[in-house]
Amino acid sequence: MSPRLLIIGGTDEARRLAAAVQGRVDTISSLAGRVNSPRLPVGEVRIGGFGGPDGLAAWLRAERVTMIVDASHPFAARMTDSAVKAADSTGIPLLVLRRPGWTLEPGNDWRWTATLEEAAERLPQIGTRAFLTTGRRSLPAFAHLDDVWFLARSVDTPEPPFPRRMEVLLSRGPYTREGELLLLRAHHIDVLVTKDSGGTMTSAKLTAARELGLPVIVVRRPPPPPGILTAETVDEAVTWLNETPTL
Fold first, then answer.
1. How far apart (Å, rounded) are the C-alpha atoms in residues 99 and 200?
2. pTM greater than the 0.85 cutoff
């Protein structure tokens, strides 16, 4: 059987992996469909959910997939859990591709939290004008905070519930240090709230916050499932694909 690869995507790493193996491996990229106009990878693309681990396992068998790379967002824990369970039930080799989280640098004032709910609980004691970059689906966690004004950046328009005092900025990265500095100053932001997504596409906000001396509430990413093979770069994933026997 010729190798057939499923890339669980939606990230820059997933798109770069699809491009790196184009023409060498029969590949299908899967997107969750949560963004109205996603950046599409090269090659065949599937959009939509699988119906949990059992649905994914059935789809893998029907499509004769022989390898899986889960390159979904570092906070897409449910998708990764489904991939792990489906790979285990089908015996298909799985690699989890996760870019490293951001590195604390001298001058950063980061306040780590375990969850969005903890971030919302701590926020009023840290600032009153928040730049919220945790994604539109996170807004319900902050909806009860009437004493904080929010600038919420999102690719698509959010749906309620969300904070009453909020301005929405529809935008998609990558962003620059200069642009982030202008944004923070123009809106008189005194605290940044973000997830530890890692990567360079949205890291400029951290540089800008450091230069302005602003505190940053950072939500920790969920750890990968124990015992699962992981890679941090596209090159490592390509090496794994080259070295992994197919079914």
1. 10
2. yes
